[in-house]
């Protein structure tokens, strides 16, 4: 017998069936089924009836999701899970559905994505969280496709042997145009050294149809200790020193306090689905928490065109978070098309001891 505590007023009764499954039966009539977790060993994808490999590399004549077939299919990632189907169709490599491709002598990894209906916001355009998710997906696929990835989430073989991980310290994203539902975007990414113990990753996002750059981003990561020489030798051949966003080292983000913040939102609680594989809150979740304390009229009338995040510490599931925001208007006497209409400063902190989690600075332009 299991017990579950529900936050809502709906009660939930759990019972074990003859087949060994655990079912929850709320009084409102919704049946919830539960099964013990076990390792997923395969995924069945059907081929066509003639024994040919299924291709999903084009939708309405446009290439999507970076799928590669034929001679370039050797750039597959990890273990191949090619499976047949009950109708006699051909073998399909599930890993091939994740593929992008290497360009520029394999220094740059490129992958395309369709903007899904669940990735857009109320204004029918992709959200900043969507862009962050796509950047993260492309980065991890880059590591996997290069052959560097071990069992760790983005960690190399040598890092995994030494139980090392990269820690994100700073992210800067600049957006010129947000894509809409059904648009195809193409993302390029590459890496370079950052100081003695860090790595920088850059991205550009293009509109696939026009080839126009619509967003760019850079991220700095570091290790908590000196990078072992074996790890350095492992990643150095992939370095491309091409910097997209130039920031000065003294580009400090001021710390907000109860006195300087205009809006404070308390009681933000991490959910189980917000956790990453390291049992920390996923980096993308922080964007949503930051926006929780932004005035509603700003969210409705302005586009978030730039945001810089400085990570101070990790947040775990048991910790409540507070979001602080202070808005600033631009100088109305200046009419430069490059100047934002609004600026904002943000702070995420732990509610219990006020320890900083993230400092952030953002820029906004009227829609």
TrEMBL record:
Top enzyme class: hydrolase
GO molecular-function terms, A-Z: acyl carrier activity; fatty acyl-[ACP] hydrolase activity
One GO CC term, this protein: chloroplast
EC annotation from Swiss-Prot or TrEMBL: 3.1.2.-
Localization per record: Plastid, Chloroplast
Record flagged with keyword Chloroplast: yes
InterPro entries with a match to the protein in the record: Acyl-ACP_TE_C (IPR049427), Acyl-ACP_thioesterase_NHD (IPR002864), FATA/B (IPR045023), HotDog_dom_sf (IPR029069)
UniProt keyword annotations, A-Z: Chloroplast, Fatty acid biosynthesis, Fatty acid metabolism, Hydrolase, Lipid biosynthesis, Lipid metabolism, Plastid, Transit peptide
Classification via Pfam families: Acyl-ACP_TE (PF01643), Acyl-ACP_TE_C (PF20791)
Gene3D superfamilies: Hotdog Thioesterase (3.10.129.10)
Domain Acyl-ACP thioesterase-like C-terminal: 260-365
Domain spans labelled Acyl-ACP thioesterase N-terminal hotdog: 108-234
Keyword Glycoprotein: no
Protein family according to the UniProt entry: Belongs to the acyl-ACP thioesterase family.
Primary role: Plays an essential role in chain termination during de novo fatty acid synthesis.
The protein's name in its UniProt record: Acyl-[acyl-carrier-protein] hydrolase
Organism for this UniProt entry: Phoenix dactylifera (Date palm)
Name of the gene encoding the protein in the UniProt record: LOC103697375
């Amino acid at each position: 017998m299991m017990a579950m505590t529900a936050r809502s007023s709906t009660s939930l009764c759990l019972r074990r069936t003859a087949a060994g499954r655990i079912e929850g039966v709320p009084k409102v009539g919704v049946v919830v089924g539960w099964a013990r977790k076990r390792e997923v060993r395969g995924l069945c994808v059907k081929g066509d009836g003639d024994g040919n490999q299924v291709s999903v590399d084009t939708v309405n004549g446009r290439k999507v999701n970076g799928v590669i077939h034929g001679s370039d299919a050797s750039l597959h990632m990890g273990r191949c899970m090619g499976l047949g189907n009950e109708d006699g169709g051909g073998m399909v490599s599930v890993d091939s559905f994740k593929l992008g491709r290497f360009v520029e002598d394999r220094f740059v990894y490129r992958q395309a994505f369709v903007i899904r209906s669940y990735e857009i916001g109320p204004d029918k355009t992709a959200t900043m969280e969507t862009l962050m998710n796509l950047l993260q997906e492309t980065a991890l696929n880059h590591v996997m496709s290069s052959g560097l990835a071990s069992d760790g989430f983005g960690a190399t073989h040598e890092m995994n042997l030494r139980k090392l991980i990269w820690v994100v310290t700073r992210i800067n994203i600049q957006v010129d145009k947000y894509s809409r539902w059904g648009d195809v975007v193409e993302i390029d990414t590459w890496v370079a050294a950052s100081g003695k113990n860090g790595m920088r990753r850059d991205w550009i996002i293009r509109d696939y149809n026009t080839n126009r750059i619509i967003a760019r981003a850079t991220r700095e990561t570091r290790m908590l200790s000196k990078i072992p020489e074996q790890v350095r030798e492992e990643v150095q051949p992939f370095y491309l020193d091409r910097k997209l966003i130039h920031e000065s080292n003294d580009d400090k983000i001021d710390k907000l306090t109860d006195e300087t913040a205009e809006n404070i939102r308390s009681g933000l609680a991490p959910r189980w689905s917000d956790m990453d594989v390291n049992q920390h809150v996923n980096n993308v979740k922080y964007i949503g928490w930051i926006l929780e304390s932004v005035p509603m009229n700003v969210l409705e009338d302005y586009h978030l065109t730039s945001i810089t995040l400085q990570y101070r510490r990790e947040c775990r599931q048991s910790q409540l978070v507070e979001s602080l925001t202070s808005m600033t208007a631009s100088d109305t006497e200046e009419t430069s098309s490059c100047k934002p209409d609004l600026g904002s400063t943000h702070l995420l902190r732990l509610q219990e001891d006020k320890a900083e989690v993230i400092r952030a600075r953002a820029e906004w332009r009227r829609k």
